[in-house]
């Protein structure tokens, strides 16, 4: 089973992502609504993919991403930053810190589904 952790403080974004991905076979989805809970889930579940917002309570997405890379949790893990922060400097910072993709909100759920399937080597049903 592939594991995905969604870390976003906006409940409707978490719900949209979960609904978009829920029909994928062999995928388990976990969610967190702040950076601290996100780090705990990432350490506990060791997901294959993290979908991470940048603007989060407690620890922001950059801090979560930094924790992932500093603790070598990213060896078999991909990280997508999903954020409303669309400036080039934000994108560059996220990618330099170790993110694999940077997707700005609002995003196309179908695009996200395709990218997730591509990264996790899953077939679309």
UniProtKB/TrEMBL annotation:
GO biological process: regulation of DNA-templated transcription
Domain Response regulatory, residue spans: 3-120
Molecular function per GO: phosphorelay response regulator activity; transcription cis-regulatory region binding
GO cellular component, one term: cytosol
Keywords recorded for this protein, A-Z: DNA-binding, Phosphoprotein, Transcription, Transcription regulation, Two-component regulatory system
Annotated PROSITE patterns: RESPONSE_REGULATORY
Residues with 4-aspartylphosphate modification: 53
Pfam families, A to Z: Response_reg
Function: May play the central regulatory role in sporulation. It may be an element of the effector pathway responsible for the activation of sporulation genes in response to nutritional stress. Spo0A may act in concert with spo0H (a sigma factor) to control the expression of some genes that are critical to the sporulation process.
UniProt name for this protein: Stage 0 sporulation protein A homolog
Biological source species: Clostridium cavendishii DSM 21758
